[in-house]
Amino acid sequence: MKRSDPIPTDKESFKSFSIDARDDPLLLTAEQVAKLLQVSKRTLWRLLSAGALPAPLRIGNSTRWGCQQIHHWIDAGCPSPSARENSTERKK
Fold this sequence. Notes:
Strand order of the largest sheet: 1-3-2
Order of helices and strands: HEHHEEHH
Largest sheet: 3 strands, antiparallel
Shape: globular
CATH class: Mainly Alpha
Structural class: mainly alpha
Mean pLDDT: 81
Radius of gyration: 14 Å
Number of helices: 5
Low-confidence stretches: none
């Protein structure tokens, strides 16, 4: 997949969506994450404030999410914070 290719939105295409480190970024901007989730940037920030999203990385004044982190979170069904805590406790 090349940078110019759109992020797939249907479930079947998304399953075959692969990340080629040479072509795709390792970190996603808020705009890219919002587009992937099909929500507005404002809704993305609200979800983050509510603790519904994985925590982003801060690099200087920039906020970024790990591409694989977001994809794993989506693959897991976008679990809520309490569900993520429970799954972490079960692994211990």
